[in-house]
Amino acid sequence: MIKTALDVQLEGRNLDDMVGKAVFDNATLRLNSRNLSLDKLTLLSSIERRTGDSAGTQRYFDLDSDFLSSRLQGNFQPQRTIDDLTRLTREYLLHFKGDAAGMKTYYEQKQKQAVRLAGRRATNQPLRYGIDYQIITKNSDRLLTFLGSSDYIAPSTRIEGRFTEDNTSFLTGTVKTDSLRLGKISFGPSDLDLTTSKFTYGEEVLASAIISSKRQYFSSLLPTRNLQIEASWDVDHIDFTSDIEQADSSGRYINRADLNGELRFKGDAIDLTFRQSKVRVLDGDWILNPESLIRKVGNDYTIRNLSLLNENQLIQASGRISPDSADHLDIEAQNFLLASLNSVLNTTLGGTLNGSLAVRNLYNTPIVESALSVKALSYQNSLIGDIRGQGEWDPQTQRVNVNASVNRNGADVVTLLGTFPPIKNQSTGAKSER
Known about the structure:
6-stranded antiparallel barrel, 29 strands, mainly beta
């Protein structure tokens, strides 16, 4: 429902022909029991017909409101531009679906349709057009809340670039913002520079993106800063480099991660591999195995040789995650010093971890089996003892059998025996003895 004082001076039978001015004063919008008040919104649309100019007819759209201002200009038709951008987004997403047969069918049908419409396209509308765009946000909180979104976009965020359509779809864009929140992920001052081109009737893509952000908030446990990402898409693969630091680390002990690698499209599969990648914690480098592989095929993920190595410390994962409850992901730790976590998680642990975890049925009710030991576990410099624990899945009872103990100075001080079902927020049936 819309309630407003309206002053309209528009001409045209459809969106492509519309010229004039529309002003909405003291407007109230209602959607799903949510209300939005709007002091003023002004829309200007004009067409400038040029003779002897290669650009031909120039169209201008200007919108100004309480929440943002924007300008579109170029030799474009609004409805065709909307259709082309919608189609282009769908075609980019096709690459990430891992459906080679579906992509082949899509482009075969598209090329047949292009042949059928070639004559009409040549007579009714120009093949090539371009549009320059600029959007500057104001205080958009009320608008986002009205739309049911918890996201946040800082005032004065600028989005601008150019889109052209010919035999190639070419899009450029820059984004500059002081603050941005998408779901639970937040960014401080950030910049994005994007350039992408794609053959209109083929699947080949060439693109590049550069992201720079001074502060990030991916998790309350690990705020980060100085994120830098560069990526280039060349037909069937995307090369990337990235660098990020832990926000509250300093001096010689700056914790950081350098992740570099490639995302490759291989028919129905998408492969993620790494090269020259490492994680730096407490002035020590953890090297990411260059033979690591993460492969996605539909809803199945295969992980091979994914490991981090620091001298004789090793963390590695291999296995498969899929809807099949028999598939499992194995995680192993060798000689892992728990003190490595202290600067990352702001805690004071000590001890050496060895053991393995097997995780399966992640798409339904996750089942975790384990065999772990920690030698000389301590907290806040107080010795707890040597920990041994084992959890085994019993298919008959549909429960995990647990057997764990704490040994200090050669004597068991805590023993834990019991079972529990793999259900979140379910109290266990375990009992402890001292």
